[in-house]
Specification:
four-stranded mixed β-sheet, Put_Metallopep, 18% strand, Zincin-like, Metallopeptidase, globular
């Protein structure tokens, strides 16, 4: 597996965070793109254990990883959906925990995208 920074995903997440008023401090999130991963996921959000926070710096708490072979083929609208989904895993307190899929907002992603005008982000 190869990893690289995903600045394009970071910019998209910043725009989503602002327009949707999610209130997340994205300076605490590392955005990565992986290639040749064996996962079936398109993207995933991970909480960094304390040992890795020491390595990356105390201010980094989460990783959002997109799987290049799957994510890069998506349309802009699909990428927005995926990034919103991954951002919803991060609680507003940002202390290292993750929300699971039972969190009610996961059922409302399309509604959030429409109401907050996130489709307008596509260029």
């Amino acid at each position: 597996m190869q990893l690289e920074k995903a600045d394009d995903v970071k910019r998209l997440a910043e725009e989503i965070n602002t327009k949707a008023s999610l209130g997340l401090d994205l300076s605490k999130v590392i955005f990565l793109r992986s290639q040749h991963s064996k996962t079936t996921a398109i993207a995933r959000t991970l909480g960094l254990p304390p040992q890795w926070r020491y390595v990356f710096g105390e201010d980094k708490i989460y990783i959002i990883e997109v799987i290049s072979e799957k994510f890069d083929k998506l349309t802009c609208h699909q990428k927005i959906y995926v990034v919103v989904h991954e951002l919803l895993h991060i609680p507003s307190g940002m202390k290292g925990g993750l929300r699971n899929h039972t969190y009610r907002e996961f059922r409302n992603i399309r509604k959030i995208i429409k109401e907050k005008g996130l489709d307008e982000i596509c260029w």
